[in-house]
C-alpha cells in the first residue's frame, strides 16, 4: 500500500498506461478456487452407486449416523462439509486410487484426503457393534439356521468362518516383516464369520499377515464364546486350516463312505458362502485389494 501511494505521487512523470500497468503489478492478486463438484446432485442414483458403492439413500443414512463426528469448526471458505468428507472416503474405498489422484479429482490436497479417509474410517468403525454381531437370541439363531439349511441341508449352522488377507503398505518398523504373508506381500489377516445371505456377523481385523488362521481363532473372543456354550448347539463351518471341534465342523481329509461323501459335499457347499462374501466385499471396495 505504501508503494502504491508513492507511485500515485510520482504518476505525473509517467504516462497513464505505464501507471496502470505498474499499479496492477503491486496490487494483491485475488485467489481463485475451482468450485467443488457435488457428486450427490451431479449423478443419478445408478451412477452414484457405481462411483461411491452406496445408493443415495444408504449414503444419507450413513451420513446421518456419523456427521456429528465429522463437523470441523473452520472459518475458511474451503472447509469441507461432512457430506463431502464422506464422499471423498467412499470414492477412495471404491477405487483404491492413489490419494494424490483422488485429491486432484475432488479438488483438495492429498494430505487433506489422507486425513479425511482416516477420520471417516474411524467414524464408520464405531458403528461395528450395531451392525456386525452374532445372533444372540434363539429366534435369531433359528432364522440363521434356516438360511444355511436351504443351501445344502446342513443343520444348526450359525456361520461360515475363514480369513482373508487385506493388503497394506509396508509398516516400515521393526515388526514390519510380521505383516508379510506367505504370498510375499504385506497384509492384515482378517477373520470373519458370515450368514447365508453374505452378511458379516463377526470380524477380527488386528492380526499381521504372517499369523495363521487357526491362531487368530484360538485367540479370539468368538472361540471363548463357543467354549462357554453361549450359542447353544450352533455350529461353525471352516476349512481344513482349522482344527475340528464339537462346534466347528471342517472337511474330512479322505472321505470314503457314502455318508462321509455326503457330509463332505454339504460341508464344502455350505462353507463356501464365506468365500463368496469376501469376493463381493473386495469387488465392492477395491481398496481392500490394493493396499
From TrEMBL:
Keywords assigned by UniProt, alphabetized: Cytoplasm, Hydrolase, Metal-binding, Nuclease, Nucleus
Domain of life (superkingdom): Eukaryota
Keyword Nuclease attributed: yes
InterPro entries xrefs: HARBI1-like, HARBI1_animal, HARBI1_dom
UniProt-annotated location(s): Cytoplasm; Nucleus
Family label: Belongs to the HARBI1 family.
Protein's name according to its UniProt entry: Putative nuclease HARBI1
Provenance organism: Schizaphis graminum
Gene expressing this chain: harbi1_8
